[in-house]
Amino acid sequence: MKFAAGNATRAFTIIALMLVLLLLFWGLGSIPLLSVNEARRAVTSREMLETGQWLLPYMNGDLYLSKPPLFYWLTLMSSQMLGALSEWSLRLPSALFAALGCGLVYWQGVRLAGRQVGLFALIFLAANAGFSLFARRAEIEMTLTGLCFMALLAAWQYLFYEGRRGWVWLSYALLGCALLTKGPVCLLWVTAPVLAFALITRSAKAKAYLCDGWGWLIALAIGSSWYLAVSLQEGWSIWAGILNEDIVKKISGQGAESWYAYLLYLAGDFFPFWLVLLVQPRQLWRSLRERPELMLLFCCSVLPLVLFSLFTEKHAKYLLPTYPAVALLLAWQWSEVLSRVGNAWRKLMIGLPLVVLAGFTVFYMGFESRAFAHRIAGFPQISSAAAAHPELPAYSLLPPDMRLVYYMGRPVATISAEQALARTEAPGLLFVQAPLPAELNALQPCVLAQVEPYLKPKRRALLIGLGTACPKTPLSVTQ
Hints:
five-stranded mixed sheet, two-stranded antiparallel sheet, globular
């Protein structure tokens, strides 16, 4: 059953599209970096841009191979096109991939069951705490989500529509790009669900897709190219520590999250839309078994959930590549239930998604900066104070937060209090969280700037001039 009137459908569509575009792009670069991970990507991108070294990523002066470089390359291209590296250029790739994902979800929903399903799938994906957050962050998750979803859609085209092998090779090429974004873990969002679908449905096409030798060669050629180049330059042993840290510990290390943590993450991000799964669940299961397209969506939604729940280290963002499939599945069920309810429920089910989407849009347009003011207010102060001394090396008593490194505009080395006191001649900048440690009381006259707040409402930090950079004057406050 479709929307009742054509004019109402057009108005619904226009409002939804406007809200999504505002949510993704409004004020994208107007707020400083909000997370440590976002700052890691920003610092690494800046150092690659400054050195012109696109093969070996560095972060705060140290070799950083924990993540492949595709996201960094995208931010560098964005920065070069926009003329400078900034919060806007760093976040633009994520916003573009999010917009592309929303468009593809709508398109796939229309092909699956009509325009109504496409619209609901679009809204369910955008009006989502996890998806909207990473759509506006300089982090790799949205790029990974877009590439994995496009790889699945290319496979979908081969499995259910046009059987040409070109779609298989396109899918594997996109999978190779996903490998260059976050490594082999992308197989859990693309290859594993197709494998489960092949086992459940005994689909000959799914088997042919999985056994396509040229496809695998394409994926491996693209996905392993950077790893091979780094290994030839740095040696194969360079990967031992990364393999242990990023794979072994996450699978079998010590974790505090319960096995059902991902169910809670999904329930929170897709609330209240997931409640529709409780309506006539037997009919839903019957539909999954009768329609292969729905079964593939089910495999793409559920199998990664099961696999990642077995890992000890759990983060909500690990399931983000499943969100387009989840949105499509929920939209299909939402539309089915909508066709069987009375007029009052029908109005609620049509209006509620737009209300939720509008709520997310209003938050990012007007309230995000206020909600996180305590976390970001100190960064412009740090940037201003550091810019007054552009040639001085920077130091910190503790391993520096990467947001500090980014806004200091240079690498920040870790030194001890004794080393700081010993710098009687060589100039430098020392960043210290207030209050000043007792062993550094002698440097009280050397405070160049006081930063308040710093990450928390009542936390302060100090920027101290070392050596000849000490003004030997009382404390001055920079606002």
